[in-house]
Amino acid sequence: MPLRLPDRLPAIDLLKQENIFVMNTTRAHAQDIRPLRIVILNLMPLKITTETDLIRLLSNTPLQIDVNFMKLKSHTPKNTPVEHMMMFYRDFEELRREKFDGMIVTGAPVEMMPFEEVGYWREIVDVFQWARTHVTSTLYICWAAQAGLYYHYGVPKYPLDKKMFGIFRQHVYDAQLPIFRGFDDTFMMPQSRHTEVRLQDILANPQLKLIADSDENGVSIVMARGGREFFIMGHLEYAPNTLDTEYRRDLGVRSDVEMPRNYYLGDDPTKPPVVTWRAHANLFYSNWINYYVYQETPYDINKIE
After folding, report:
1. Which of 112, 114, 121, 122 has its CB surrounded by the most CB atoms within 10 Å?
2. What distance in Å separates the CA atoms of residue 12 and residue 27, rounded to the nearest whole number?
3. Catalytic residue from among 51, 111, 134, 142
4. 37 beta partners
């Protein structure tokens, strides 16, 4: 599909090597098409990696998508060059005057902190509230999923005894939901987190619908507002080597991290990872774009409310 990306974004060259069709802004302006506008609030430390992971998944649809990147004025990233942020990201205060067909809010390395103690909490809840009137459908991932459930629905998070780390089998609750169109009865999803939300808190709130969970990692995906909000506890967007990178980074540094489960060939970390989630990851994002964004958003984007 033609993805409209900012000129010179590093992900462009990386994705072209994978034969993914991307289009820079200059070329896209020559086409008379109303693209879907997707904004990504990227809170992950390695922003270029996350950009590439998400753009790869957004490419699996024939629709033209205009990808925008949002940053918070109250947070300065430490692991991404300032030049990159200035060139490709815009402050929320600037973007809040605009409307978008879809939004993705990523995880963040702050999950052990109480929500209110996160330095950018006040600004991010402004984003959460803004999204309800300025975005057709929003995906909240990992920490953002927990934060969104807490802010919008009062669902608490709980610390885990050890990191939930690996690839785990998820069960689909309602196979008739469009988000699961084409899915098998079960699918695999990477998990990498130190906290959780609990089943009883989700089931106790009639505004929330549990649509996938796991015998091993618990709550997996929660839907709200008829699909205008999805809260995803894992990382379908992860590249094949992401958990391996995290594991080797934390070896000998953290005592609560074990080898990622169901990940390496033969559970041997000297052997390569086995990718078991990529097909369903592509299908999930394609279904989200098609059924919850494209088919629900008004042609006149200003009519989103």
Report:
1. 121
2. 13
3. 142
4. 66
Residue 235 among the catalytic residues? yes
The string of DSSP letters for 249-264 reads HHTTT-SS--PPBTTB
What band does 64 get if pLDDT is binned at 50, 70 and 90?
A: confident
DSSP secondary-structure letter at 76?
-
- Residue from 34, 10, 39, 40 nearest 22 by CA: 10
What b-and-e string marks burial along 202-233, b requiring 16 or more CB atoms within 10 Å of the CB? beeeeebbbbbbbeebbbbbbbbeebbbbbbb
Dist CA 296 CA 210 (whole Å): 21
Catalytic site residue from 134, 152, 194, 235:
235
Structure tokens at 271: 């052997």
Would you state the pLDDT for residue 257? Answer: 74
Pairing of strands 158-172, 135-141: unpaired
Active site includes 237? yes
**pLDDT (tens digit, 9 = 90+) per residue, 199-208?**
999 999 999 9
Please give the pLDDT value at position 1. Answer: 47
137: its two tokens: 């459908």
- Token pair recorded at residue 139: 């995906």
Q: Where are the alpha helices (DSSP H) in 139-214?
A: 143-153, 199-203
Residue-wise pLDDT for 260-293, tens only, equals 999 999 999 999 999 999 999 999 999 999 999 9
Instruction: Calculate the dihedral angle through the C-alpha atoms of 29, 30, 34, 35, rounding to the nearest 10 degrees.
Output: -60
207, 169 in Cβ contact below 8 A?
A: no
Active-site annotation holds for 51: no
Total number of residues shown for the chain: 305
The Cα–Cα gap between 28 and 4 comes to 6
Strands (E), the chain: 3-5, 22-24, 36-41, 65-71, 89-91, 100-105, 135-141, 158-172, 186-196, 208-214, 218-224, 229-232
**105-114 pLDDT tens trace:** 999 999 999 9
| pLDDT (0 to 100) of residue 29 | 46
